[in-house]
Amino acid sequence: MADLNLPAGAKPFLEAHGWGGAEIAPLAGDASFRRYFRVRDGDRRAVLMDAPPPNENCAAFVAIDAYLAARGISVPQVFASDTAQGLALLEDLGDSMFVRAIDGGADEAELYRAATDVLAHLHADPMVETVGGHAVGPYAEERMAREVALVLDWHWPELKGGAADDALRASYAAAWAAVWPLARAHDDRLVQLDYHSPNLMWLPERGGLARVGVLDFQDAMRGPAAYDLVSLIQDPRRDVPPALEPALIDRYLAACPAFDREAFAASYAVLGAQRAARILGVFVRLWRRDGKPGYLKHIPRVWSLLDRNLAHPALAPVAQWFDANLPPSVRRDFTGAA
């Protein structure tokens, strides 16, 4: 076990819950501090999640997991947890992530329709403020503003050779402040924040909504309904066929007839741009700070997603700022940078 660099409490945790003699193998990590290990004991199989505090919140994962499961969503069953240590033993949903399933011949449109239906189901009602003792906070404008500033914190210096000055930051913040109110349409719904292909599993042996396995929801908040649909369709790590976007939006809104279509469209565009700007900063930060250069290859796609959203009339102030300060002529694709 020492060769796996397991957390100190992992072995006694597994032993306490009947998995002491299990074989353990690492699973691929993600952009967070969390780590995962596949645990096998004869015919039994599970996943050990290491979500170390204070960087990760295991208790939030357990609480949101129970909330989603109660609504018929396929999330990993929690067999055991020690939230103080950040350890949880989870149901193993297998290896059929959306990307692998599509590469293996699954109908891409069917998978994305199913994932859209999950969101419409979850958004039929407002999100509660507390789940299992865990407070589900609001995805507020202050946080959105901090997140879009990441493009100045990390991406700007790579393009300009120095830090963004206070005047530039003020003009950038002002451009976004003009559009934040438009993002707030239907802003009392569940926002999972990372509802996209790397965190979705295809489970065709199950029926209905349960065919979509959902992972990575521990940071969930209450916020605009459009956010997770943007996350799903405007995936920073893979190209979703352009024709699917309007079809999936129409499908979602047909299932949520109380939502105002025009307000939703504006919210979708603002949140899509906000998400893209954040990711442009995050992917460079993962490279420079965390030594994870693998995300750099996605940067051209993220710029394309940002430009797509900036074309919406609601984003005119932000589009003008990018045209003046970060036009296509100064952007890099970072090929070979790592």
From TrEMBL:
Record-annotated Aminoglycoside phosphotransferase domain positions: 24-259
Cited Pfam families: APH (PF01636)
Domain of life: Bacteria
Stated name of the protein: Aminoglycoside phosphotransferase domain-containing protein
Species per Swiss-Prot/TrEMBL record: Sphingosinicella soli
Organism classification: Bacteria, Pseudomonadati, Pseudomonadota, Alphaproteobacteria, Sphingomonadales
